[in-house]
Specification:
The complex is a heterodimer of chains A (about 270) and B (about 425). Chain A has nine helices and 13 strands. Chain A has a seven-stranded mixed sheet, sandwiched between helices. In chain A, α6 runs parallel beside α7. The longest helix of chain A has 16 residues. Chain A is globular, with a radius of gyration of 18 Å. Chain A starts with a helix and ends with a strand. Chain B contains 16 helices and two strands. Chain B has a two-stranded antiparallel sheet. The longest helix of chain B has 30 residues. Classes of the chains: A alpha/beta (about 270), B mainly alpha (about 425). The interface between A and B is large, with 41 and 42 residues. Chain B: Keywords: Cell inner membrane, Cell membrane, Membrane, Sugar transport, Transmembrane, Transmembrane helix, Transport.
Chain lengths: ~270, ~425
């Protein structure tokens, strides 16, 4: 009930990609970071984006989030070509990014963090109760049971709880695509498990989820699709069930997989 | 981390669980104003025992309020820049310059009261805008900007007042600001309004939260808090409503000092701005994590500029109070130790020098501590040397509490 748009979206558009990129190019000066990337994010699916350091993962998500513009290529959202010039445009479309550093204010409570910059009520008389209710509903909707009070300061939360708050903030705004940058990198085993469950739940609610991760255990546990970036090219976007761990490692490290016969041709095979 | 344990959400808050929650907060390093309140009680007890016939008198109590008013109000302004993790070293002389403008326009140019007051306040606001632009737009550290202005504003004051001059204040209103007392009945009316306002707002909050199914504090706690608050405020008014003149036949002195109204109004207004407006949330967010604030779409430079403007505007009011206290404006109004005492008051009250933590009431509690120390040491016939050393030591102690509690908070915050 807290994410109504996403629930509606789930059954109707599950076939068609929510977000699709074609032939994305991006250079920083002489450095050609992205060389013709194609990517599809489908509703209700977790798309894992993997690749070695420097493969262009961060550049790709920053471009999707509107932090810097792509040089070339098509950016389609819900089937329509869109122009994203800034983070606000991306938010308007329903794209939210949870960055690795989470961007939470330790000195504010959970509710304040979730609504930061987008408070409810008049700006001279905030509606704290409405914000608290909606925060609680959103967390309950995600079956988060680990937060005793939404009025706890973030400084008192554990790493997993912080990640949960950051993710809940991202889904608060009827978002359709949530991009998670290394959500489990700093977490222990139990907390990693909680966050991965949460990631799965987001997809089950019909959101398109992009999960950036170095950890293939996480990827194989939670992802539906795996997209591999190698030196700025998307060398494969495949269903998880169609590949083995070894093949993914090979794709990440060499850009091709002998056994699968894929080469660096952006093969989206499904 | 204990909070990770599975707990039913919105559990019914009981007195015991609230007390435990508060103890946990304190142990976790979030001490707030607690050390200042305990320190204040200890100081009052010590001085009352040592000097029962001079410290614990109605006259001295009223004096204490008048002496601390300017520092308290200045500290309220400083809290806004301290919340950002910045500093305004020039705030004292900003107040002085504003008071000089007030004095010159009133006394030398015979302006009516209201335009003169507005001119003084606007002086403060403009100084704040200037500091804010240099800090947030140009990117100079606030320490350097305001250190430069600390010097420059002294020059401005000399230039406005004239070398070595002093401007006497004759305006009845300005003189009464921080000298006069209100009639007894008005003091009691104010007392009733304050108590009803405090208890009423809290009651309303509890009822709306209950109606919406949110957890609220139990009625018993509300009753205890409201009762304690009422006793404190009534005792305050009753004590100040007694005759305190050393020679009542000559001149009667009684009633709540006028300046209490100004402090009360500022506490309510500024407290509201910080806790209930989106601007207030953005101030805390900017002080806590400027990068997170920026990514949330908050205009961080504007938040900073507005905080410096708020600080300097309130500093102008503090300057008026200081001038009113001495019946005149001199090049030393807002000078000497005023600024450091105000920073000290805010920090002693529990506002963090690292930004992101602090409340307006910190200024009142800290301001009282600072004033009691000064007042008590003078009554103990100690020389200024002792007073300065003690005040310096207390400020260092408060800063240590701040730094240590911050370390504890970081240590207990992340698993």
């Amino acid at each position: 009930m807290s994410v109504p748009a996403a629930e509606e979206a789930a059954p109707t558009t599950s076939g068609q990609p929510l977000l699709s990129l074609r032939g994305i190019q991006k250079s920083f000066g002489a450095v050609h970071v992205l060389r013709g990337v194609d990517l599809d994010v489908r509703p209700g699916h977790v798309t894992a984006l993997v690749g070695d350091n420097g493969a262009g993962k961060s550049t790709l998500i920053k471009g999707i989030a509107g932090i810097h513009a792509f040089d070339e290529g098509e950016y389609h959202f819900e089937g329509k070509p869109v122009k994203v010039h800034g983070p606000r445009d991306a938010n308007q479309l329903g794209i939210e990014v949870v960055y690795q550093d989470l961007a939470l204010c330790d000195n504010l409570d959970v509710v304040d963090n979730m609504f930061l910059g987008r408070e409810l009520g008049r700006s001279v008389r905030l509606d704290d109760n409405a914000m608290e209710q909606r925060a609680r509903e959103t967390l309950d909707g995600l079956s988060v049971r680990t937060l005793k009070s939404v009025r706890t300061h973030v400084s008192a939360l554990s790493g997993g709880q912080r990640q949960t708050v950051a993710i809940a903030r991202a889904v608060l705004w009827n978002s359709k695509v949530v991009i998670l940058d290394e959500p489990t990198a700093a977490l222990g085993v139990a907390q990693t498990e909680q966050v991965l469950l949460l990631v799965r739940r987001l997809a089950d609610r019909g959101l398109g989820v992009v999960l950036i991760s170095h950890n293939l255990n996480d990827v194989f546990e939670v992802a539906d699709d795996i997209a591999v970036l190698y030196l700025g090219q998307l060398v494969a976007q495949v269903r998880k069930d169609d590949v083995t761990r070894g093949e993914v490692v090979e794709l990440i490290t060499t850009g091709s997989s002998e056994k699968r016969g894929t080469d660096t041709t952006n093969g989206v095979d499904r | 981390m204990s909070a990770t344990t599975q707990a039913p959400p919105e559990e019914r808050a009981s007195l015991g669980s609230i007390a435990r929650g508060y103890l946990d907060k304190v142990r976790g390093g979030d001490v707030g104003s607690l050390p200042a309140v305990l320190g204040l009680i200890a100081l009052v007890i010590v001085f009352s025992v040592l000097r029962p016939d001079t410290f614990t008198t109605e006259l001295n109590f009223a004096n204490l309020i008048g002496q601390s008013a300017a520092v308290m109000v200045l500290a309220m302004g400083l809290i806004f820049v301290l919340l950002l993790g910045e500093i305004d070293l020039s705030a004292g002389f900003t107040g002085g310059a504003a008071a000089a403008v007030l004095g010159v326009t009133l006394t030398n140019h015979d302006w009516p009261l209201v335009p003169a007051l507005l001119a003084g306040i606007l002086t403060g606001t403009l100084i704040g805008l200037f500091i804010g632009l240099l800090v947030a737009r140009v990117g100079i550290p606030s320490f350097v900007v305001t250190l430069a202005l600390f010097l420059a504003l002294q020059g401005v004051m000399l230039w406005i007042i004239g070398e070595g001059g002093t401007i006497g204040l004759r305006s009845e209103f300005v003189l009464k600001l921080n000298n006069g007392s209100m009639p007894i009945w008005l003091g009691w009316l104010l007392t009733v309004l304050t108590v009803v306002g405090y208890a009423g707002t809290n009651l309303l909050k509890i009822r709306t939260r209950r109606a919406k199914g949110l957890s609220a504090e139990p009625m018993l706690l509300w009753a205890i808090k409201s009762g304690a608050f009422a006793i404190l405020v009534v005792a305050f008014t009753a004590y100040l409503s007694r005759e305190r003149s050393p020679n009542p036949a000559l001149k009667s002195l009684k009633g709540v000092p006028n300046v209490v109204v100004i402090i009360l109004a500022l506490v309510v207004l500024l407290g509201y701005a910080l806790s209930r407006t989106s601007w207030g949330k953005h101030v805390y967010a900017t002080g806590g994590n400027a990068e997170a604030a920026r990514r949330s779409g908050i205009a961080v430079p504007w938040v900073k500029i507005s905080c410096f403007m708020t600080c300097s505007t309130i500093a102008a009011l503090a300057g008026f109070l200081a001038a009113s206290r001495t019946n005149s404006v001199s090049p030393n109004t807002g000078g000497s130790d005023t600024l450091l005492l105000a920073v000290g008051a805010a920090v002693i009250g529990g506002t963090s020098l690292f930004g992101g933590k602090g409340k307006i009431t910190d200024a009142v509690i800290g301001g009282l501590v600072v004033a009691v120390i000064r007042n008590g040491i003078i009554l103990l016939d100690q020389p200024s040397s002792v007073y300065y050393m003690v005040t310096g030591a207390v400020l260092l102690l408060a800063a240590s509490v701040d730094a240590i509690s911050r370390r504890r908070a970081t240590a207990s915050g992340r698993v």
